[in-house]
């Protein structure tokens, strides 16, 4: 059946083979992510938000702190304040997915800070600014506001201040600037 990942009973892949298929990882990649996870959690089998931030600190040269708390929120699928290996690998799979729908659904969850099912302009500004700080870009809030206003204009809803998940996912697929930001490119 394959190597079990624990956290049984929740939605998502249960073993390495399922994760490889769903997120197009090869087994070597999965094992590398598991090694990174294990290095930071030790025998506990989960990461706290602080430990999760340490993993991000290894990857980005800027200040990942503000952005990391939002990513942690999306990885913590059962909302218990901890991320187990299955949640970690599922989050990595979604956030790095080549499938645009998977990536946009994950991005919506990151941008939807308060979890109300809508993204506001203020939420997009906050996340965009945090992402730019994470990649060590000298960004300003004004640049994040300009990006947000152009996003709302580009997808045809600049007269409103809210985006639903369906609107976000369907209308942003071809907005290259957003896709670049999601891949941690500078504004």
Automatic annotation (TrEMBL):
Q: What molecular functions are annotated in GO for this chain?
A: calcium ion binding
Question: What SMART domains does its record include?
Answer: EFh (SM00054)
Q: Does the keyword Metal-binding apply?
A: yes
Ranges of residues in domain EF-hand:
63-98, 99-134
Gene3D superfamilies linked to this entry = EF-hand
Q: Which InterPro entries match?
A: EF-hand-dom_pair (IPR011992), EF_Hand_1_Ca_BS (IPR018247), EF_hand_dom (IPR002048), Recoverin (IPR028846)
| Presence of keyword Metal-binding | yes
Sorted keywords for this record are: Calcium, Lipoprotein, Metal-binding, Myristate, Repeat
Superkingdom per UniProt: Eukaryota
Indicate the family of this protein: Belongs to the recoverin family.
Recorded hits in PANTHER family, A to Z, give: CALCIUM BINDING PROTEINS (PTHR23055), NEUROCALCIN HOMOLOG (PTHR23055:SF178)
Q: What is this protein called?
A: EF-hand domain-containing protein
What is the species listed in this Swiss-Prot or TrEMBL entry?
A: Patella caerulea
The organism's taxonomy opens as: Eukaryota, Metazoa, Spiralia, Lophotrochozoa, Mollusca
């Amino acid at each position: 059946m394959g190597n079990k990942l624990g956290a049984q009973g929740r939605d998502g892949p249960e073993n390495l083979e399922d994760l490889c298929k769903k997120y197009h990882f090869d087994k070597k990649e999965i094992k590398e992510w598991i090694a990174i996870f294990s290095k930071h959690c030790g025998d506990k089998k989960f990461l706290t938000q602080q430990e999760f931030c340490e993993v991000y600190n290894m990857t980005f040269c800027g200040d990942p702190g503000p952005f990391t708390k939002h990513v942690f929120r999306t990885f913590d699928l059962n909302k218990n304040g901890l991320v187990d290996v299955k949640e970690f690998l599922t989050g990595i799979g979604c956030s790095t997915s080549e499938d645009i729908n998977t990536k946009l659904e994950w991005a919506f969850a990151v941008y939807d800070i308060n979890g109300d099912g809508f993204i506001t302009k203020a939420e997009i500004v906050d996340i965009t600014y945090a992402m730019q700080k994470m990649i060590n870009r000298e960004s300003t809030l004004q640049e994040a506001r300009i990006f947000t206003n152009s996003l709302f204009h580009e997808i045809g809803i600049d007269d409103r201040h809210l985006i639903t998940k369906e609107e976000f996912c369907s209308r942003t697929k071809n907005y290259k600037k957003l896709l670049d930001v999601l891949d941690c490119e500078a504004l």
